[in-house]
Design brief:
Largest sheet of chain A: 6 strands, mixed
Shape of chain A: globular
CATH class of the largest domain in chain A: Alpha Beta
Number of domains of chain C: 2
Oligomer: heterotrimer
Strand order of the largest sheet of chain A: 6-7-8-3-9-10
Structural class of chain C: mainly alpha
Helix content of chain A: 25-40%
Order of helices and strands of chain C: HHHHHHHHHH
Helix content of chain C: over 70%
Chains: A alpha/beta, B alpha/beta, C mainly alpha
Order of helices and strands of chain A: EEEHEEHEHHHEHEEEHHH
Radius of gyration of chain C: 23 Å
CATH architecture of the largest domain in chain A: 3-Layer(aba) Sandwich
Structural class of chain A: alpha/beta
Largest sheet of chain C: none
Largest interface: A-B, 35 and 37 residues
Distance between the termini of chain C: 44 Å
Chain lengths: 263, 262, 241
Amino acid sequence: MIKISDITYGYEDKIIFKNFDFSIKKGEFFMVLGKNGSGKSTLAKLISGIDLPTTGKVMIDDLDTGTDDIWEIRKKLGVIFQNPEDQFVGSTVLEEMTFILENYDGKNIDLKINKALISVGLMHKKNESINNLSGGQKQKLALASALLLKPKVLVLDEVSAMLDPRSRKELLMLLKKLNKSGVTIVYITHYVEEVMCASKCLLLDQGKKVIEETPRKFLEGNLLKYNLVIPFHLKLLMKLNKDEEKYKLENNQCVVDKICQYL
Amino acid sequence: MSISIKNLSYEGENEKKILKNMSFHVDEGEYCFLIGETGSGKTTILEILMGLIGENQLQNEIKIFKKKLFGKKNKRVIQKEISYVFQRCEAHFFKTTVEKELKVSGDLEKGIEILKLLSLEYEEIKEKSPFELSGGEKRKLAITIALLKNPKILLLDEPTIGLDGKSSAELMKFLGTLNKNGMTIIQTTHIMEEVMDYATKYVVVKGGEVMYDGTDVFKERKILKNCRLDIPFERRLLDALSKKGFNLEKEEIEDFLLERLC
Amino acid sequence: MLNKLYSEKESIVHRIDIKTKIIYTFGYVLSLMLMNNFLTVFISFIILVFLLLFSKLGMKKIFYFMKTTFPALISIAIMYKFVLEKTNFEIVRISSVLIFSTVSISCFVMTTKVTEMAKAIESMIPFKKIIPAYEISLMFTVSLRFLPMFIREYKRIKKAKICRGIYIEDMNLKEKVKHVLGYFLPMFLLSLEHAYNLAIAMEVKGYRKKERQVEWNFEKVDYIMFLLLVVYLVLIVGGRK
């Protein structure tokens, strides 16, 4: 679905990626982790076609970001950024949603907007001024506007960094639901606990792949070296689940109860 | 008592009541966490304590170091002893290089030392603009600037938001050490995990009112649920284990469970 | 503060299409120059009263805007009377022009949503192939959206200075000017960052240069308003000596 072949990318005198290869299959929930400066945000920009590699190709579903029509690619790929304050053009929710549709095609605008807002749970805020939304709601709005064109891929660049824990969970649940319905997700983060939602995880350091595995195997790697802290409950679960998967992470209390059961 | 707040009410723009008749106190040397969701009023409390807002509205019942926080002269005297670090730390910077920032804030030598304690190498960043630094580095610089003032009280507004796991843990450890050495700290947060290891006092705020004021907030499950706050996994585990008769410390859990269950 | 500018009421004036309102207000203010006797002043006054009635705006808000003109009004009145030694009528005339134009413009501002204004301005700019009307109105809308953020940032920087022990109110002019740079630098960098992020966000949402359709959506009410404007102008011109 997404294929990056042998790219080199840098600016000024800094080279970020050199002869880098990368691919994501259709339907994956792919997470990219790494410390600041590892290149993960740059990777997001390269995949979204915002930046172009100096050499090599970035292919989205057989369309080259360098040579093919970028607007066709944008129809298939939605992007959401970290800072909820910077992403919006309109002053109300409705205005924001209309902006994108105005740029592409103007049919059935109302229907499409309502559908997208319902899917993220913001229908009741349709006429609300964007300044009155909470951080979590703003990110949901960004997601809704990205969903308007029915993209096949969503790229999310550290969208949960500025949110409180509840909003973060809600957003991830939404993404999981979307992934189940077939949308490929590329999710960049530095919160290790979020890997449990992924189907595959990649650890980047200085533009190179360090670990590219399933979440379970990913957690076994030496993450602390790369500034990633594994939260206590995941560490514990990994050790307890070494031989067999007795404890599944649904919610905290369930795990605690089960542990007490076995004691 | 270092800080005593009685019957504090505050109205914001459009006559919206932000704080409703709040009362609590913080003793010297405490590490007090103001917990609550965004919009509950925690930042407003800190700003009022710093004397930044609330000129005409205070009921004149806030006492810091036994002096009333009222009137220009009193405020200035009190403000000298308090430092406040904003959530958006860019607001603190106005010089073109890190070196200039530190020089204008106080003793450069001391600044370099503090940066080192926060694992930042001064030589690497001294020529950079403070706005060029990464999120974590900016926070650390802002805290260093705040500490160069030699305050008795440190106020922090969600200092770990946007930081990666390692920087976050480092920062909390640093603040914990600072507190052990006598600094009174009031910090807002809504991340319950970081609160456990360092807090000596919890104040839970919702809708501008004090919901809880005490030393062990995790006992009050109902209040936490009502305020949409999570109980960290470690705490749940510790409580469940002690119910079964095993009284353990956080560090002992892992080995204990591995022994028993594997 | 910006919220206070728009009065949330349902009135006839609120419902009139913005382009009509702009043209009408513009025409009215220009016509005030045509007043040259008590009759014309009276006619203009009556129109204003009707405008206020139809827009259901409270006198308190109107007075709030009028307050800003008082210094100018008083100084002009004094100048006219004692320096230029104009007749009493002239003084009345110039005061009426000032007051009526302020009130009518305030009326317009308070019955129009800012976002609609941007769209209206866009559609009224001529020579669309040369002048980038859409881009101008978009810049207008976006700047307005960021204005609260910048105000917040300015307040934050002010507070941060107090935290550092820098009390600007105590300084003399020279020192104050020096510190202005301390505001300018962070706000400038901040705006660059926002602009960059917004530009990327807009590109990602498919924004690009293209031909915009111009639509003049006029309804019955607007035609009536135009007729009234013509009638009024006729009255004013006819009422002159």
